[in-house]
Design a protein that fits this description.
The chain is mainly α. 44% of the residues lie in helices and 8% in strands. It has 3 helices and 2 strands; from the N terminus they run H-H-E-E-H. It is globular.
Length: 80
């Protein structure tokens, strides 16, 4: 989910996205982190996995940085 939000924001707001990365480094990992996924072809990585409530909070906070409210985030729990 975090990667999807990042990719969408990077695609829609590339200039602002770079600023958000610089201002919020704890949301992102460097390329050598163990569990990560790359955002598009940016060379910027985000953690993959983790606590669901933390992931949701980061996504909501990130959307707010781009001027979107929480209502733009739809979460569906899928069980195997």
């Amino acid at each position: 989910m975090r990667v999807g939000v990042c990719e969408l924001m990077q695609e829609r707001h590339p200039d602002t996205f770079s600023k958000v990365v610089d201002e919020n480094p704890k949301w992102f990992f460097e390329a050598d982190a163990q569990y990560r996924r790359q955002i598009g072809r940016t060379g910027i990585y985000v953690p993959s996995g983790g606590d669901r409530s933390h992931i949701k909070k980061v996504c909501v906070d990130m959307l707010a940085r781009f001027g979107y409210s929480e209502k733009y985030l739809s979460i569906e729990d899928r069980r195997p």
